Amino acid sequence: MPHPLVPAPRRARIRVLAAGLAALAGALTLAGCTQAVPFEAAPDASDPECAAVVVRLPDVVADLPARETDAQGTGAWGTPASVLLRCGVTPPGPTTDRCVNVDGVDWIIDESDAPRFLFTTYGRTPAVEVLVDNDVVSGTTAISDLSSAVSVIPAERACTSLDDADG
Fold first, then answer.
1. Contact criterion met (CB below 8 Å) for 131 and 83
2. 47-61, 71-85, 97-111, 149-163: which has the minimum mean pLDDT?
3. Domain assignment of residue 3, yes or no
4. Is there a domain that residue 51 lies in?
5. Which of 11, 39, 46, 138 is within CB 3.0–4.6 Å of 74 for a Cys-Cys bond?
6. pLDDT band, very low/low/confident/very high, at 15 (cuts 50, 70, 90)
7. What is the model's pTM?
8. d(C-alpha 71, C-alpha 16), whole Å
9. Looking at the 3D structure of the chain, how many domains does it have?
């Protein structure tokens, strides 16, 4: 049953990224070699802020080596790819989903497709999303490793708690 608080477009994005992970795993098994990770670029992947993020992406995330990708504004780590990053997604609006601050970057966490977690930056335009296969790697570790690169996009807003909103 779909999560009532997760909008349909986000669920669809999670399914697309998850299908990409599954297809990649199958293709790598059949091919027996490492190839570029197939991606669909985000709508605003050509934003100069995304280029600034991509050139700063680390060679290793959560002890997984970086992989080549075939779309602008993307990054991937692990074989099979267990951490997928897309820059240029539509910034999320206010939400009741859990939001955490990691090294100065606010991330909204969508856990509706556990053990795959979708982390999306909050308060930055363009937004960055990271899909993490939590069966392979810790989402917290992956986001911590990526926050430095993502922090080059200026923060315009920050997460607040319901307690803050009441005050």
1. yes
2. 149-163
3. no
4. yes
5. 39
6. low
7. 0.78
8. 15
9. 1
